[in-house]
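Board notes (copied after class):
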Amino acid sequence: VHLVESVGGSLQAGGSLRLSCAASGDNPSWYCMGWFRQVPGKEREGLAGISTAGGRTVYADSVKGRFTISRDNAKNTVYLQMNSLKPEDTAMYYCAAHDRCYVPVLSPTAYSYWGQGTQVTVSS
């Protein structure tokens, strides 16, 4: 599975941004999908995960209520809607795919395929 994230951006605190991740290759709809982020010097943080059909989602406490993960299997695309952004949300954001998945998880080690990442910068 090949994953390509949309271009991120720079915006002010309180703003919103939607990231997308286009998947191609071996039946992307068979994979759970997740969004992660990483800042230099820190471990990659799992933000949100979604099951193959989109019926199950999981969120990190740090983004619960602000971020929403969704997917459109007809377009082989996963989205991360980010609202009420804060400066601490500044990071490189990655989407990832997890095969043989029953429920979505937030552990990066469960994911086998990764996008190249996209930078999101939030200023105060």
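Comment from the instructor: The first strand starts at residue 2 and ends at 5. The chain has no helices and eleven strands.
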